[in-house]
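User: Can you predict the 3D structure of Splicing factor 3B subunit 3? Sequence below.
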Amino acid sequence: MFACLEIDYEEADTDPTGEAAHKTQQTLTFYELDLGLNHVVRKYSEPLEEHANFLVSVPGGNDGPSGVLICSENYLTYKNLGDQHDIRCPIPQEKNNDLDDPERGMIFVCSATHKTKSMFFFLAQTEQGDIFKITLETDEDMVTEIKLKYFDTVPVASAMCVMKTGFLFVASEFWKPDEYYLYQIAHLGDDDDEPEFSSAMPLEEGDTFFFAPRPLRNLVLVDELDSLSPILACQVADLANEDTPQLYMLCGRGPRSSVRVLRHGLEVSEMAVSELPGNPNAVWTVKRRIDEEYDAYIIVSFVNATLVLSIGETVEEVTDSGFLGTTPTLSCSALGEDALVQVYPDGIRHIRADKRVNEWKTPGKKTIVKCAVNQRQVVIALTGGELVYFEMDPTGQLNEYTERKEMPSEAVCMALANVPVGEQRSRFLAVGLADNTVRIISLDPSDCLSPLSMQALPAAAESLCIVEMGAGEAGSDGEPGTTGSLYLNIGLQNGVLLRTVLDQVTGDLADTRTRYLGSRPVKLFRIRMQGSEAVLAMSSRSWLSYYYQNRFHLTPLSYESLEYASGFSSEQCPEGIVAISTNTLRILALEKLGAVFNQVSFPVDYTPRKFVIHHESAHLIITETEHNAYTEDTKKQRRIQMAEEMQEAAGEEEQELAREMAEAFLNEDLPESVFSAPKAGPGMWASVIRVLDPVEGKTEQLIKLDQNEAALSIALLKFANQPDNQHFVIVGVAKDLQLNPLDNGSHSYPFSVNVDCTSLELVHKTPVDEVPTAICSFQGRILVGVGRMLRLYDMGRKKLLRKCENKHIPNLIVNIQAMGHRIFVSDVQECVYMVRYKRQENQLIIFADDTHPRWITTATILDYDTVATADKFGNIAVIRLSGNVTDDVDEDPTGNKALWDRGLLNGASQKTGIVANFHVGEICMSLQKATLIPGEIIFRSVHIIILSNQVIPRCDTYFFIYFFRMFWMVIYVSSSTQLMQVNRKALLMIWTVPQVKFQRNLKTSERA
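Assistant: Sure. Here are the predicted C-alpha cells for Splicing factor 3B subunit 3:
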C-alpha cells in the first residue's frame, strides 16, 4: 500500500479564465500493489482542505497503526483508511517572530522516522530549521492524539536520516560552511522541561502553539563535510603574493553566506614553532630502537655544530646522546636494532645502545661531501668522486667494503632505499654526478659497486630519493595487498622534479615523468603518510608526492617555503613533519590527504552577489543583496515599536511583567546564521557594500544601503576626465524592486576609492529608467546595461553624464564585456550581440549577433573575435566572428554603415559561428580566463567555474578547466570543433562534431 498527493489539471487546462485552476483541489489517494495480478489498484481517494507539500508514512502491521501524516501549511494531519477519524494539530511557531511577514505560514520540509520493536517516533523539520519530535497516541490501533515537542534547531535540510546507531544525518543545502552534518542523538527529549503540544489541546481556528528556540541540547555535532554550494561569483588572482593564484569565491545565501579564499594545496597544521640560536641547514629524527613506535631525538645541524633534542612531553636539549656536537652533520639514522649513526665531514660515528662509540675517519685530507644511509647501510662520497660503502654484519658491526668506486666526476647527491622487510640490504644506490647524469650502482655482494644503468638529465641534479609507492592495502578477507614499485625521484637545480620507475630486478630506469615545481632547486625528503612512504619536495613551494586511495598525488602544501625536513612521529602527532625555515624549527601535520584545495572562510551579512578586486591594495569590494529581508536599522526600529506595543497593550497590573517581556525581547540575541533571519515579505530588500581584506579577513568598511535598495551590479574603473590615481566604484542599485513584473526606481552610485582602498566615499547618485543589471569599464567611461538599453556614461560633477545609447537589445542585458573598440553584450535570452563604438559619430552599433538564442548567465572574452558563454541550461559555448567579418567591421570606407544596416534573419547583418558547444549539466555562474600554475594546464576551479589558460589572440586552441561536484574535467577546444575531456590519468576523446566516432586513450606523458 502506498499513498500520493494528486491534482487533476484537466479542467484548468481548458479554462481560459483561470477560475478552474484556482478552484482545483488536491487529493490524497491510496494505491495497492496486487502482486498476483501484477498491477496497481486504486483503493481510496479524498480531497484535502489545504494543499500539502509532502507525506510521512506511519509504520503499520505489528509496528503501528499505519496511515500517513499529511504536512501542509500550518497544520499536521493524520489520515488512514477505515473508521479512523482525522487528527489535526497546528505546527508550533517561534515566539517573538513578529518580524516575519504576517501572511507567511509554516511548513515542514523534511522528516525522518525512527522505529524499534517497542516504539516509533518522527523527527520533522520546519523551513526555519526547527526539529520537532512527533509521536502518536493510539487506542486499540486507532490514533487518538498527535503530540509535538521541540527537539533542536539545525540547518534546513533537504533530507534527514536517523541511524540505528543513534546518529542523525542532515543533508542540507546552501548552508555555511558545510553541506552535510552528522549529529549524535544524546537525548530523546522525554525528560526535559520543553512544553509538549497536542492535537487534543483546545484552540480556536487559526490559532497555533508557540515555542522558544534555543541552542542544541539533544543533539551533538560529530562531523561535517565541506561544501562550496552555491557559488555565486569567483575570480582568480594572487592577492597574497604566493606565486600561485588563489580563488576568491562568494558562497552561500542569507545570513549563512561567506567569502571563501581557496588555495591549491594540502592544509597544514602547525603543531609547534620554536626559534633556534642560529640558522640551521638540516634536521633529522631518529628512534632509539627499531621497534619503538615514536621518534626519540631531533638532530639539528648548523654550519659548525650539531644540536640534539629529545622528544617527550616537551622538546629539550640533551648532551649525552653520543652525537658529536662540535661539527656539522651530513646525515644520521637509526642503525640495526638499537644503534645510531652520524655522518659528518671528517668521518662516521657509530653509536651503540650502551653509549660505546666506534669512529671511522676519512683518509688524508679528504672529506665526506655527500652520503646516503638506511637501517643497515652507509655510503659516502669523498672529495674527488670516490665512493666508500659500509654494511652492517649480523653482530651489529659496521664494516667497510674492501673495494672503493671511483666515479667519473664529483658526486652531487646520493640516495638509498629503505631495506625491504625480510632482507639484509637495499640493492641499489643512486648517485647524481656533476656531469648531469644519474647512475644506479649495485650493492649486491655478487657485483658490489658495479654500474647498472644511467640516465642523462637536462640540468644538474640537486637531490635524489628512492621510495616504494603504489602498494595496495590488504583485503578484508586476509588477502595480501599488492606490492608497490620502486621510484627514483630526481630533484633538479632548475626547479624540475623527475620521477622514474626503478626496476627492482635489473636496476633499469624507465617511464620518466616531469613536473615543474618552482624557481629554486628541488630538495627531496622521504617521509611516511598513511603508513606508506611519500616524498616531500621543496622548491620555492613545498610539494608532497604520495599514494592515496589507489592514485598517485603530487600536491603543493599550503604553507610558506621550507628549507629542510624529515619525518616526525610522536604520541601527539603520529605522522608529522619536522622542518626548518630560516631560524625556526617547525613541527607540522598534514590533514585531509587527497583534497585539492584548502580554504579560509569569512562570514558576511547577506547573500554576496558580485565583487571586484582592487589589485593595488589587494582588497575586495563586494555587493551583498538579500530579497525578503530587513536591514539592521529596520529590524531595530520594528523591535522597539513592538516592545512599545507590548507595554501599551498590558493592563495596569501587568505593566511590570510587560516591561520585563519587552526588555527580554529587545535583548534577545539568537544568531541568524543558526536560527534564520526574519522574512520581510516579497519586494523587501536589504543590501550592503563591503570592503574586505581577504588576506587578513578584515572588513575595512561596510556601507549600509537603505531599506528596499538592492545592489545588482558593480564595476571598478578610472575615468579619463579624472586624475590618473583616482579609482571609482560604480554600483547599480534598484529601489523598491518588484521581480514579477519587473518594476523599480533605479540609480547608479559612483563611489570614490582612497589610495589604499580602505574606504569608499559617495560622489553622487544618478537616476536611470530601468534596472542597472550590468556595468563595464570602457575607454575611460562606463557602459551600463539599463534594462534592455546599452548606455555609455562619463563622470560629471553632479551625476553621470549620458553620452550615447543603443536601444536594440531585445530583452534584458545581463553581462557586458569590452576589448578595444568592440563590446560583447549578453542578452538574458538572445545570446551575445557584438557592438562597435564609433567615436567620431558617438554611436553604439550592433554589427553581429549569434544565430542561436541562449539564456546567458555569464560570458568572458577569449580574444578579439571570440567569446565563451554559459547559459541557464548548463551549456558552455565558444562563438567566434569569422575573419572577413572582422575586416569588414574594422574598415568601412563608406562611413555610412551600409554593411550594418542591411540586416539578416531579423538581426544584425553579420553572424557569428559556433566553435564548440559542450553540455555541462549545471548552471554556470562564472567564466574567467586566467593564468595558472607555471607549466601546468590542469588547474582547479570549483562548481562550474570555467577557467582557460593564457590565450594568444587568434589562436585556434583553448583549454577550459572546470570542477563539477565530484570530478575534475579539462576540455580542449580547437578550431576543428573537437572536445577532449581529461582526467588526472589520461586524456579521453569524448565528443567530435558531427557525431561520436571513436574513443582513444592517451598516455599521461602526452599531455603536453
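The two ends are 60 Å apart (CA to CA). The longest helix spans residues 632-649.
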